[in-house]
Amino acid sequence: MKNFFEKTKLFNKNTILKILKEYSGPIWIYQDDIIKKKIHQLKKFDIIRFAQKSCSNIHILKRMRKLNIKIDAVSIGELTRALVAGFKPENDEIVFTSDIMNKETLQKIITNKITVNAGSLNMLEQLGKYSPGHRIWIRINPKFGHGHNQKTNTGGENSKHGIWNPELAIPIIKKYKLNLIGLHMHIGSGVDYIHLKKVCDAMVNQALYLNQDIQYISAGGGLSIPYKTTDIPINTENYFTLWNNARNIISKHFKHKIQLEIEPGRFLVGESGILITKIHEIKKVGQKIFTLIDAGFNDFMRPVLYGSYHDISIIPIDNRSLHTNKYIKTIIGGPLCESGDVFTQDENGKLLEIRLPEIKIGDYLIFHNTGAYGSSMSSNYNSRPLIPEILIKNNIPKIIRRRQTIEELLKLELEIK
Ligand SMILES: *Cc1c(COP(=O)(O)O)cnc(C)c1O
């Protein structure tokens, strides 16, 4: 088993050791170089729109804007983050995607003239009534889906997302003179290009059938990343070619160039992130060994929610070599008072034993590829404060979110007399 620094060359050893000296407790770390590299791989698309729900730290968002990326927001909180990070409502820099919205959100959207990607007919009614002429996209459910898990499926009869009969949107759009600028489908195909072709064909069919002159189409997100060493990385060339063909047919139909947008979250940030935790106990329980670390599923949710796999590596506290033939089989658990707080489980909640070298209390245990849906999914369960986030740029670590304090956590309640 390789230690962390042998496993990945993406992080400078001295920089990481410096961070470990300075901060205790679990920490999220992001590497700027990787984000830049991933953006570069998608440069053929006219517009890259970052799905910020995957990693919504304002400093990451600012960085994205600097790198010419536009932004997607799916809640009033994310909309506020986008504005605070400097994204402007002009040029559709911000698009609000949702299937419903409350009064407060509608108000904010109208006041700031935020382009809306509507996933339901009622959203169009709401918007039309108060803001005729508003710039909108419609999100279409192409009546089929794809997804590594029912919980992440975004199309078909088992998905709540998008408009099932987009032709019913047209009279509403006409009635309120809403300005339809684009068609959107977020299905995601990973590395399944046959499926992707089906999605692209569905987009062409819808665009021609609806026959509303538009300026944009969006390929949505859902580009996978290799979590396991055996996973195949996405071929962005294939991805672009299929979507570009679809775009060209639609451009030809409307006799002007349609802009092609892509909207990834995971692909841009997933591989840039790691979660560093510390081993606090190695416990024998009957025939099993539980290794307990200082991060729980309140910090890092994916393994518990989806049974997601994340590579694990070790930084030995005492610099000892891990090159030994001695392994232990162990289950990795967290500190939460909840038996499901286990990072090594399958999607049905069955606990899995993994092979680790002979570890010691005090060693660091690192989860890889946690940049997407890591920190942004954290909660305060067990009254645990949110943990710090650090961005490494040009080998210089910069804290981009400090640890939340327990006082801050209690304040909402203590304010009430
Ligand atoms: C979540 C989401 C994305 C990003 O999905 P990834 O799998 O992270 O690429 C893109 N668009 C919409 C509308 C989403 O909800």
Automatic annotation (TrEMBL):
Recorded superkingdom: Bacteria
Sites of N6-(pyridoxal phosphate)lysine modification: K53
InterPro entries tied to this protein: Ala_racemase/Decarboxylase_C, DAP_deCOOHase_LysA, De-COase2_CS, De-COase2_N, Orn/DAP/Arg_de-COase, PLP-binding_barrel
One GO biological process term: lysine biosynthetic process via diaminopimelate
Catalytic function, reaction form: meso-2,6-diaminopimelate + H(+) = L-lysine + CO2
Annotated binding of pyridoxal 5'-phosphate, by residue: G222, E263, P264, G265, R266, Y373
Pfam families: Orn_Arg_deC_N (PF02784)
Pathway(s): Amino-acid biosynthesis; L-lysine biosynthesis via DAP pathway; L-lysine from DL-2,6-diaminopimelate: step 1/1
Domain Orn/DAP/Arg decarboxylase 2 N-terminal as annotated: residue spans: 34-269
Family matches, as HAMAP family: LysA
UniProt-recorded name of the protein: Diaminopimelate decarboxylase
